[in-house]
Design brief:
With 679 residues, the protein is an alpha+beta fold. Among the domains are: 99 residues, OB fold (Dihydrolipoamide Acetyltransferase, E2P); 185 residues, Bira Bifunctional Protein, Domain 2 (BirA Bifunctional Protein, domain 2, 2-Layer Sandwich); 140 residues, 2-Layer Sandwich (Gyrase A, domain 2). The chain is 34% helix and 19% strand. Strands 6-9-10-21-20-19-16-11 form an eight-stranded mixed sheet, with helices on both faces. The protein has a five-stranded mixed β-barrel with strand order 1-2-3-5-4. A four-stranded antiparallel sheet has the order 12-13-15-14, covered by helices on one side. The longest helix has 30 residues. The protein is globular, with a radius of gyration of 33 Å. It starts with a helix and ends in a 7-residue tail after the last helix. Bound molecules: aspartic acid. Aspartic acid binds next to strand 20 and strand 21.
C-alpha cells in the first residue's frame, strides 16, 4: 500500500515536472532571443581550471589531456546563426577546426577557425598571451575558442563591400584543444589518401562530403514524391536482411549461425518479401534497400549497394514506369540545373536497342547508329574482315567534326593500338574493318566495297570528308546478353574520341525505357542463374511475367521466344534500374520454376513461401528497383559509385581496406559456427 502511495506520488511529481519542462521549452522557443548575449565566465572554462588544480598527480599525461576535453565548453552559436546575429563586443564560444596561423608581429597573429561543417570560417585575432596558446595547437585540431566579437578593420584597398560573413572576427581569449591533429599528416584539398584513411579523404575533400549531402537530398526528394504525391501513397517498409538462400540469379553471401549447418543468406534484393507484401494487402511499398551480391566486381559494382526498391499491387508495368518517371522528374526539377525530362520517356525494344546501338543500355546522345550492310557487301570484303561463314556485318559512322582524314586515321590507329582497342583486334569473329572517308581518294576510300556497294553504303551512311566508317562481323544468331562487339566498339571509340578532343563530350540526359526483353536467356558460365537444368535462365529474374497472351502460349511451345514484361530505365549509357510485372499466379510461377527452368525439387521448395503467398489470392503486381548509388553518381556526373558512398569497398575483391574486411575466421569462430576450412 505504502509502496503504491509512494509510486503514485512519484508519478504525479514526474508528470508535474514534465509539464513544467514542456512549458519552459515552449516558452523558451517563443522568446529565445536571436541576439548574441554576452556570456558570463563560462562554467566549463572555470571547471577546466578547477580540474587542472585538482588533477591527481599520478594521472598520466594522456589521461590529464583527456580529462580536460571531457567537459568542453558548449558553442554559443553555430556559425550561420553567429553571422546572422553577431554584435560587437559580445563574448562567444565557437567550435571548429583550427586553420593556418600567420604571425604578423610579436604581439599580433591571425588564424582561421573553420566551422564543424567546414563550410564557414572566421578570422581569429591573437594578441600577446593568446599567441602562445594558439601556437601550441596543431593545424586541423578540433577546438573550442572563446573570444570577443569585433568588426574587421577594413583596409583602404577593400573597396568591395564584404559579405555579412566577412565582416566579423574574434579576438581570441581562450582556446580549448579537444583533440590533436598529428603534425606529420599533410592534409590539403588536393591530397589523395589511401582507402585505409577514408576519414581523412572525407575530411579534406569538400566535393566528396558534398556528394554525401547531395545523396541525402536525393533520398529525401524520392521520399516526398512517393509518400506525398503518389496515390495511393507509398509506405516505407523494412524487410529482413537475414534472409534465406534462394536461387534468384546472383551469388549470395551466407551468414552462418550457431546452429550446426544452418545459415541465413543476405538478400540480393527484397524481391520476394516485396511481392509477399503485395499479397499482404499493402498496395504500395518502397524501401531504400541494402542489397548484397557476391559478384565478380565488374566495372564499378559494389558487393553491397542501395536500391530504391518499390512494388505496386493492382498495377501493371505501365503504372510502374509512370511512377518512376514522376520520381525522376521531381528529382531533376528539385535538384538539377538541367531541365526535367518532359512527357513519357521514350521506349525502345531490347531488339532495337541491340540492333541500333549494340547495347541494352545505349547512350543515345551521340548518334553513331549501327546499320546492317551484309546484304550489299561483296563476298571478298566479308571474307577479308571475318573468318565466319555468312556472318551478319554491321557498320557505324563516326563523324569527323571538321577533322581531316589524317586526323581520323590517327584517332583510329591510336585507339586500336591501345589497351582499350586490343579486345576488338582480337575478336575471333574478325577485327573491325576500318575505312576513312576521303573525298580526294579513289571511291572516296571505299574501294574494297566495289563501286556498287560503295554507292549503296554512301546512301545509307551519308558520310562526309574525314568521317570514319567501321565494319564488324558477328555470327548470324539472335541477340543475347547485354551488348554486341560492335556496340562495345561504338562506345569505346566514342569515349576515346572525346578524351582525345576529337569530338565534344555529349551533354544533357536522355532517358529511355528499354522494354520487351526475352523472358529467358541462355545460361552463362559466369553467372549462377537459377541453377535449373534447362540451359536457360530468366533474363531478369524468375518472377517476371510474360508480356502478352501470345507470350503465355509460347511458354508451352517455345519459351525462349517469349517476351517479358520487363523494363530497364536507361540514361546516357547507364542502366539506372530495372523491374517487371510479376507472375501473380502460383501455378504459373511453379510451372516456370519446375518445368521451364527445370529446378530440382529441393530448390523449388526454397520458393514455397512465395508460392503459398501467391496462392492466397495475391493481386496482380509490378515493381522496379533503381540503383540508388548509381542514380546519385549520374546526377552528379561522377564516373564511379565510390564517389557517392561514404565507405565503399575497393574494386579489388570487394575489400573494405579501412576496417580490413573480410578478415580471416579465427579457430574460435569456426568452432562457434560449426565450420571447418577445406584444405
Ligand atoms: N529485384 C529486382 C532487382 O534487384 C528489381 C525488381 O524487379 O523490382 O533487379
Amino acid at each position: 500500500m505504502l509502496l503504491q502511495t509512494v509510486s503514485a506520488r512519484a508519478v504525479r511529481l514526474r508528470s508535474i515536472y514534465v509539464e513544467l519542462s514542456h512549458f519552459a521549452q515552449r516558452h523558451a522557443a517563443w522568446s529565445a532571443p536571436r541576439r548574441l548575449a554576452p556570456i558570463a565566465a563560462p562554467r566549463q572554462f572555470r571547471s577546466q581550471a578547477y580540474l587542472r588544480e585538482r588533477a591527481t598527480p599520478e594521472l598520466p599525461a594522456f589521461l590529464k589531456t583527456y580529462k580536460e576535453a571531457v567537459e568542453f565548453p558548449p558553442a554559443t552559436y553555430d556559425f550561420e546563426t553567429f553571422f546572422a546575429n553577431a554584435e560587437p563586443n559580445t563574448q562567444v564560444v565557437l567550435h571548429g577546426y583550427l586553420g593556418s596561423l600567420s604571425a604578423i608581429s610579436k604581439s599580433l597573429s591571425f588564424a582561421t577557425l573553420v566551422d564543424p561543417t567546414m563550410e564557414h570560417r572566421i578570422q581569429l585575432v591573437a594578441l600577446k598571451n593568446a599567441i602562445e596558446k594558439l601556437k601550441a595547437v596543431n593545424k586541423h585540431s578540433p577546438v573550442a575558442v572563446r573570444g570577443t566579437v569585433q568588426r574587421k578593420k577594413s583596409k583602404a584597398s577593400d573597396s568591395v563591400p564584404k559579405s555579412s560573413k566577412d565582416i566579423w572576427e574574434l579576438v581570441l581569449e581562450d582556446i580549448h584543444v579537444l583533440n590533436d591533429f598529428p603534425k606529420e599528416i599533410v592534409m590539403k584539398p588536393e591530397t589523395v589518401f589511401p582507402p585505409e584513411q577514408r576519414y581523412l579523404q572525407l575530411r579534406s575533400d569538400a566535393e566528396l562530403r558534398e556528394a554525401l549531402m547531395f545523396r541525402a537530398k536525393v533520398h529525401n526528394v524520392c521520399k516526398v514524391e512517393l509518400e506525398g504525391h503518389c496515390r495511393p501513397a507509398f509506405v516505407e517498409i523494412e524487410t529482413p536482411l537475414l534472409f534465406k538462400s534462394t536461387p534468384e540469379g546472383a551469388r549470395e553471401f551466407l551468414v552462418p549461425t550457431r546452429r550446426p549447418g544452418l545459415a541465413y543468406a543476405l538478400p540480393q534484393s527484397p524481391q520476394q518479401y516485396k511481392q509477399i507484401l503485395m499479397a499482404s494487402g499493402l498496395p504500395r511499398y518502397y524501401q531504400f534497400a541494402r542489397c548484397f551480391r557476391d559478384e565478380d566486381l565488374r566495372a564499378d559494382r559494389q558487393p553491397e549497394f542501395t536500391q530504391l526498391d518499390l512494388e505496386m499491387s493492382f498495377a501493371t508495368g505501365d503504372d510502374v514506369m509512370r511512377t518512376v518517371e514522376g520520381i525522376i522528374r521531381r528529382l531533376w526539377s528539385s535538384l538539377m540545373k538541367d531541365p526535367a525530362p518532359e512527357g513519357p520517356f521514350r521506349r525502345l525494344s531490347y531488339h532495337d536497342a541491340m540492333a541500333r546501338y549494340g547495347s541494352d543500355k545505349p547512350d543515345t546522345r551521340y548518334g553513331m547508329e549501327i546499320i546492317r550492310l551484309d546484304h550489299l557487301l561483296p563476298v571478298d570484303l566479308v571474307n577479308k574482315i571475318s573468318p565466319l561463314h555468312d556472318p551478319i556485318v554491321e557498320a557505324f559512322k563516326l563523324e569527323a567534326n571538321d577533322n581531316d582524314p589524317t586526323e581520323t586515321s590517327k584517332l583510329i590507329s591510336q585507339f586500336l593500338d591501345s589497351p582499350a582497342g586490343a579486345p576488338f583486334n582480337a575478336n575471333p569473329d574478325g577485327a573491325p574493318g576500318v575505312f576513312v572517308y576521303n573525298g580526294k581518294a579513289p571511291l572516296c576510300g571505299l574501294q574494297p566495297f566495289g563501286f556498287e556497294a560503295a554507292e549503296q553504303a554512301e546512301e545509307l551512311l551519308d558520310p562526309d570528308h574525314g568521317d570514319l566508317i567501321i565494319l564488324q562481323a558477328r555470327p548470324r544468331a539472335p541477340f543475347t546478353a547485354g551488348s554486341t562487339p560492335i556496340g562495345d566498339l561504338r562506345r569505346a571509340l566514342h569515349a576515346s574520341a572525346v578524351s582525345t578532343g576529337f569530338k565534344p563530350a555529349p551533354t544533357g540526359f536522355d532517358f529511355l525505357w528499354v522494354v520487351d526483353f526475352p523472358l529467358f536467356s541462355p545460361s552463362s558460365d559466369s553467372e549462377p542463374g537459377q541453377g535449373g537444368a534447362a540451359g536457360i535462365t530468366s533474363t531478369h529474374h524468375p518472377f517476371t511475367a510474360p508480356k502478352t497472351p501470345m507470350d503465355v502460349d509460347l511458354l508451352l511451345t517455345n519459351p525462349t521466344q517469349a517476351v517479358a514484361d520487363h523494363y530497364d530505365l536507361v540514361v546516357n549509357g547507364v542502366e539506372l534500374g530495372g523491374g517487371s510485372r510479376r507472375i501473380h499466379d502460383a501455378a504459373v510461377q511453379e510451372f516456370i520454376l519446375r518445368d521451364i527452368l527445370q529446378m530440382r525439387p529441393e530448390r523449388l521448395e526454397d520458393f514455397s513461401h512465395l508460392l503459398d503467398a501467391l496462392r492466397a489470392g495475391c493481386p496482380p503486381h509490378a515493381g522496379l528497383a533503381l540503383g540508388f548509388d548509381r542514380l546519385v553518381a549520374v546526377m552528379l556526373g561522377k564516373e564511379s559509385v565510390r564517389d557517392v558512398i561514404a565507405f565503399p569497398k575497393t574494386g579489388k575483391g570487394g575489400d573494405d581496406a579501412m576496417v580490413r574486411a573480410p578478415s580471416p575466421m579465427t579457430e574460435e569462430a569456426l568452432e562457434t559456427y560449426h565450420l571447418r576450412l577445406r584444405e
